[in-house]
Write a structure and sequence with these properties.
The protein is of the alpha+beta class. It has a domain of about 120 residues: Chitinase A, domain 3 (Roll), CATH 3.10.50.40. The chain is built from four helices and six strands. Strands 1-2-5-6-3-4 form a six-stranded antiparallel beta sheet. Strand 3 and strand 4 form a beta hairpin. The longest helix is centred in the first third of the chain and has 33 residues. This is Peptidyl-prolyl cis-trans isomerase. It catalyses: [protein]-peptidylproline (omega=180) = [protein]-peptidylproline (omega=0). InterPro entries: PPIase_dom_sf, PPIase_FKBP_dom, PPIase_FKBP_N, TAT_signal.
Length: about 200
């Protein structure tokens, strides 16, 4: 019988193996990044609120606060911004991620102590004359509660807001006692206050 002599491979150096695995890892990461880039828009529209907000946070000009609120200044405005004890006068439109509109108002007055937390926080970022787009995570809007059929539970709420004016609530009460202030008669926020938003 003839015998076949197997020629053993030379041992592969550890450094070469490490380099090989690092290269594979980088290739996989690059492929994953490409996949995310090509699917980010569909995820933004059809994904979970968390996926949408993670994608939106990377869009130009979008600022994310510590609470998770996101906003972008369309027109920056100048000067001071409202506090939680103020009443704001705004033009606004509220929509969902799919673009469906659930609320709208012109020269609408809102006591910030009585609106959903995200809307109130967004207003405190806006000087007079500014226009912002604001994205409320569900936890800063209505959360698991649905205030009506137009706003499903766990919805991201998107507001386009123009800040016309704001004054302290105490001053407004005094003015109303003396006959009121045109354009600021008082009123309720979009959908009514969130549970506990008024501090009770």
């Amino acid at each position: 019988m003839s015998s076949v002599t197997a020629v053993p491979l030379r041992p592969t150096r550890r450094r070469v193996l490490v380099s090989l695995w690092v290269g594979i890892g980088l290739a996989v990461a690059a492929a994953g990044g490409l996949a995310w880039a090509t699917t980010s828009a569909p995820v933004a529209q059809a994904g979970t609120p968390e996926q949408f907000l993670a994608w939106n946070a990377r869009q130009p000009g979008v600022v994310t606060t510590e609470s998770g609120l996101q906003y972008r200044a369309i027109e920056p405005g100048e000067g001071a911004t409202p506090t939680m004890s103020d009443v704001v006068l705004v033009n606004y439109t509220g929509t969902l991620r799919d673009g469906s509109q659930f609320d709208q108002g012109e020269r609408a007055p809102f006591p910030l102590a009585q609106v959903v937390p995200g809307f109130a926080e967004g207003m405190t970022k806006m000087p007079k004359g500014s226009k912002y787009r604001i994205w409320l995570p569900p936890a800063l809007g209505y959360g698991e509660q649905s205030p009506g059929p137009e706003i499903p539970a766990n919805s991201v709420l998107i507001f386009d807001v123009e800040m016309i004016d704001f004054i302290p609530a105490a001053v407004l009460q005094q003015m109303q006692g003396m006959g009121g202030m045109p354009g600021m008669p008082g009123g309720m926020p979009p959908g009514g206050p969130a549970p506990g938003a008024d501090g009770r």
